[in-house]
Design brief:
- It is built from twelve helices and 15 strands.
- It is α+β, with helices and mostly antiparallel strands.
- The protein has two domains: 2-137 and 313-322, 3-Layer(aba) Sandwich (Aminopeptidase), CATH 3.40.630; 140-311, 3-Layer(aba) Sandwich (Aminopeptidase).
- Strands 1, 2, 3, 4, 5, 6, 7 and 15 form an eight-stranded mixed β-sheet that branches. A seven-stranded mixed β-sheet has the order 9-10-11-12-13-8-14, sandwiched between helices.
- Strand 10 and strand 11 form a beta hairpin.
- The longest helix is centred in the C-terminal third of the chain and has 19 residues, at 324-342.
- The protein starts with a strand and ends in a 15-residue tail after the last helix.
């Protein structure tokens, strides 16, 4: 049986079933709380279309969608994917349940964009819809199942030298300290404010993309992270110089993984690579806590080559039902593709301290 949930009250009613299905999931961003707060804070309530597949009255698969408009053409996307651009997926007992649910998505009569889903779904073919696939950005991770000393010693000597040099430069500014905090829900807000101030001080503030300047995204992260604080899963790390916080990292620690959601630094201190220094400490923390992996999330970037990393590959698949609306959208997508190919590239290079996302 297939059911569609299209309001927040109905979504809350399936919270336990959702959590049962995602128990042991490798990504906290597949949890009910992540998608519920996406639906609540990033979309209009009438745009929610969460598709559920039941077998013998047991929930077996979830495809959490919402409707968005591109000009005059509507499409459906995985909740949060165009706002947060994190790796995503459906939630299912088995892959065949997902295929069955996708075949039913033709009833939406609009394209369905599955952005950054696991690469194993490359080459997806459906009877009722045309699938257009393109490569998506990968994400990187560090296997943390060994001991920290051995891992650090395995890094290239040049990378260890870069780390020591950054520490020396930071010490010129003052006393260097790292704090990795596990806030309660009541302790969270002032730490979150400090983290947002650090993030907005850099290029994100200039481009108006910082959390502090985007109310809906800020409200999403606040609501989601407060709920995670109640479960003891949030870690907020700060790098300080002479008691001034100059870099931050917000992570979720769950299912033996440390997943990085937000990083940022004050560009005034870019000469000492504060993001790299703080990342080194949070990676060390993951080793010391005997976690299985440290997940950078977001998109792979070259600064992460500082460490020995693994790569997780994703694909973006857009499904077009055989309808007039889909043909219009396919034409629009093709036009955008041509414009991107012809447009000159512009990259932000910043300092040597790594990106802020």
């Amino acid at each position: 049986m297939i059911r569609i949930v299209n309001n927040l009250d109905e979504l809350l009613a399936i919270k336990q079933s959702w959590n049962d299905l995602t128990e042991g999931s490798t990504l906290p961003i597949l949890s009910f709380d992540w998608f519920y707060n996406c639906a609540k804070h990033l979309y209009d309530s009438g745009d929610i279309q969460v598709m559920l597949y039941y077998e013998n009255d047991v929930l077996k698969c979830i495809l959490p969608l919402a409707r968005v408009k591109h000009g005059f053409v509507a499409t459906y996307e995985i909740l949060g994917s165009s706002f947060l651009y994190e790796p995503s997926s459906f939630i299912a007992d088995r892959d065949e349940y997902f295929i069955s649910l996708l075949e039913s998505a033709k009833t939406l009569k609009h394209p369905v964009s599955l952005r950054r889903i696991p690469g194993r779904f490359s080459g997806l073919k459906l009877r009722s819809m045309y699938a257009l696939e393109r490569r998506s950005t990968s994400s990187s991770y560090i296997y943390t199942g060994t001991d920290w000393e051995s891992y650090y010693a395995s890094l290239k000597s040049r990378r260890r030298s870069d780390h020591r040099r950054a520490l020396r430069k930071a010490a010129i500014h003052g006393t260097v300290r790292t704090d990795i905090l596990q806030p309660t829900a009541t302790e969270f807000e002032p730490l979150f404010q400090d983290a947002m101030q650090i993030e907005s001080s850099g290029w994100k503030g200039v481009r108006k993309s910082a959390l502090l300047l985007n109310e809906n995204t800020q409200n999403f992260f606040r609501a989601y992270l407060v709920e995670m604080c109640r479960r003891g899963l949030v870690r907020i790390a700060f790098l300080s110089i002479s008691d001034k916080r100059i870099a931050m990292s917000i992570c979720i620690v769950e299912n033996s993984q440390c997943c990085v959601l937000k990083i940022g630094y004050i560009e005034e201190y870019s000469d000492c690579s504060p993001s790299m220094l703080l990342a080194m400490e949070t990676i060390k923390y993951a080793f010391e806590q005997q976690l299985a992996s440290y997940e950078f999330l977001g998109s792979y970037e070259s600064w992460q080559d500082m460490w020995t990393i693994g790569i997780r590959n994703y694909a973006t698949v857009t499904l077009y039902p055989y309808s007039i609306n889909s043909l219009l959208h396919l034409g629009t997508d093709f036009g955008r593709f041509l414009m991107r190919r012809m447009a000159p590239r512009s990259l932000y290079t910043g300092g040597t301290a790594g990106p802020q996302r």
